[in-house]
Amino acid sequence: MRIFLVIFAFGMAIAALAGCEKQTNTVSFVSLLSEMTNREAISKFPQYVLKQVSSYDRTQTGPEDPDTWFNNTDHGYSIRKEVVKDRTEYVIMEENGPGCISRWWTPLEYTYKDRIVRIYLDGNTQPVIEENYYDFITGKSFVKEPFAFNSSDEKDSTFQLGMPVGHPKQMGADLYLPIPFSKSCKVTLDDYPFYYVINYRSYEPQVTVESFSMDVFNAAEKMLAKTAKLLLYPEDHDFTIKKDQIINTGEQVAVILPPGENAVRSIQLKVDPDLPKEALRSTVIKIVFDDLETVWCPVSEFFGGGVYIRSVNNWNNKVSADGNMQCNWFMPYKESASIEIENYGSLQVDVVLSVSATSCHWDDQFLYFHANWHEEAPINTSSPIDWNYIEIEGKGIYAGDVLTVHSFTKGWWGEGDEKIYIDGEQFPSHLGTGLEDYYGFAWGMAHQFSSPFISIPLRDARGKGDWRGYTTISRMRLLDGIPFQKSLKVDVEAWLHDSSVSYAVATFWYGSQDAICNRINEEDAIRRDLPDFMEKKPQEKPGKIYTDPAEERLIDPKGNGSVKQAGNHLDLLEWNDSNVSKPLDADHDNRYGTAGYYFFNSQRLDARDIKILKDSINKPPEFIASFKIAGKDNWAIQDTWFNHPWMNKNFLITGAAELACGPGTAEDVLELNLNDLVPEAFRLGIMLDNMDEYMNSGVFIRVTSSKNGDSGRIPLTRSNRYPDWYFFDINGVKQGDKIIIGGSCDDPGNAILSIGGVTFDVIK
């Protein structure tokens, strides 16, 4: 093995932001904002315990009871209900003593958009904060980005929130504004709590905490602006140490840092942006501080980008499309340090390694920076398990993690909760509501997203119904680091719908010199071949390839005999809402489906209690004797959810009649058999684009009747922002006649035509 060794000297300048600071026994809103952007702060053992409250399933009694340990009804729980004046308030957090709320997550769900959140501090009966819950936690109240935000690349929250629960475009919300309190804190909601997770600090009794107030908030206007700017646009670094080197298989490039009391401020690694994913995974960064190896991690997870060079940016990591990767973790050492990049793979890797370091007096409170890596590929389980991120013995602070998941199939792999045990707990004090919730998202992960606190580079597959390929997600703990005196165990539940899912995690933590963990250097794992994500077609945004018409309009009737096309109504979700214009409504009540409707494999959801109701939800018209599905009747949780026509806060979960078909040939999907009550004329509405892949809606649709009616081939738009509807007028049919709905796909590799449902209106 050849080792390239470079030794650099550097100046000992100490910048204001880089200076080593002492802890204070007084905590205020302003000091917390300062701590948020002080990279040194998390490297010193603090005077608080990080606690968590959540809506986790209270029937989970402990790991000793496997029958309940993976129960998953993680919503609706609260500490108690209180009657205040003429309203009921659900208490979701209550803490006595000095503390600070540091992180808050909830999913956005339209049923609960009008809830009010109230935060009572220090025993006061008047809340210090009383706001619309969603406005408060998404940055639309007095708290602004980046301290509160929607965790989605879809920025139009009005569009997002207007869509029913479960629709593929739902998202989460996160609040990171510190809310300190000196004596106590109580948080309430005035309606059903749904899902939530709150992290908060519980300070030692001797710590003085100045409570939050709106006066304090307003007085800190300049500090808020300064902190926000630094969070979004972190400080620049002077990279005085640099090495440009081609690293062959089995070789290293190493830099030895100057001896004495110093600190690494930033590390950059520049690689070819087209570097194969196996090379990113098999290129490893190693760091030794004071003769102790504390970092061994593939650069794929260490810098947060995953196995591709895809842009992502958070407080500690940044990856650019040009192949530049950077980390900004603060890494102090007392006597000596070295950084190595080693190539375990079979390909040459050309790197430019740059390091920024400055003098920093060693503080007895300093802990050493650690980064460890672990993979299981695949995770072989047919039932939920607790999958271990890391176990640590000793004193330290858990500071963040990066998880890369690979899946061969579309099934959702992130249902499991985090379970974090501090200092030998038998029951985890941090028990969450889902893996995506832990990372700050909801109903799956975002397609791509960057913030100072959480991030995800571009996923392979698009849409929340397709989880194939690679997904990399990061959580950086700025004010929500987890201190531990003796030990820490971080588990996540692995709820896998198949055995083809792989997890690879990098964990970041600070530890005392004698702290150890259960992670070994997994050299065989990083050398394995990585599967490709096999796209059927380029994943373009809906509507980019298949553009919808500029406006809705009636068309000249097409077809012959008893079947003619009446027109289309594209991107329509509220098919039964009379407040939405229905230009193709045949009976003029401004609703589609007045005479009846039928959605395939559909169920009804009570959105208040989050449970499936068993009673029938379809209302087939009286003149339809039977429905015959030629394909398969399919249902998946990712499909479209509609408002129930007459029951408030109920939703229809629809499936689809789905048929595989060959290119260019028409296949029958659905057959409607008529009885003696059939009217002289009725309008048939057909809902398409209901499945989770907008590319699979077919090329054309065709409606025929057994009385020689034929609409001809009607081309489809395939936009899938909302379902697309196509309408056909049926005339002069009688008892015993049949209406047949069919269509065609475009190629054998993408050959699925799906119909979500049909509506009926009598023509007047």
What does this molecule look like?
This protein has 764 residues and is mainly β. It has 3 domains: 3-7 and 237-327, no CATH class; 26-234 and 367-520, Jelly Rolls, CATH 2.60.120.1390; 554-762, Galactose-binding domain-like (Jelly Rolls), CATH 2.60.120.260. Helix content is 7%, strand content 40%. It has 9 helices and 55 strands. Helix 1 (29-36) runs parallel beside helix 5. The longest helix has 12 residues, at 221-232. The N and C termini lie far apart (85 Å).
Helices and strands in order, then pairings?
Blueprint (H helix, E strand, L loop, with lengths): L2 E5 L18 E2 L1 H8 L11 E7 L25 E5 L2 E10 L2 E9 L8 E6 L7 E4 H6 L9 E4 L5 H5 L10 E4 L3 E3 L2 E6 L7 E7 L4 E2 L4 H6 L1 H12 L8 E7 L4 E6 L4 E9 L6 H6 E7 L2 E7 H4 L9 E2 L3 E3 L4 E4 L3 E3 L3 E7 L5 E11 L8 E9 L8 E9 L2 E12 L10 E5 L7 E2 L3 H4 L10 E2 L3 E3 L12 E8 L5 E3 L2 E8 L7 E10 L4 E2 L5 H5 L26 E7 L2 E7 L26 E4 L3 E4 L4 E3 L10 E6 L2 E3 L6 E3 L6 E4 L2 E5 L6 E8 L6 E8 L11 E6 L8 E2 L8 E8 L6 E7 L7 E4 L1 E6 L2
Parallel strand pairs: 1-16, 2-14
Antiparallel strand pairs: 3-13, 4-5, 5-12, 6-10, 6-11, 6-13, 7-8, 7-12, 9-10, 15-25, 16-24, 17-22, 17-23, 17-25, 18-19, 18-24, 20-21, 21-22, 26-36, 27-35, 27-37, 28-33, 28-34, 28-36, 29-30, 29-35, 31-32, 32-33, 38-39, 39-52, 40-55, 41-42, 41-46, 43-48, 44-47, 45-46, 47-54, 48-53, 49-52, 49-55, ...
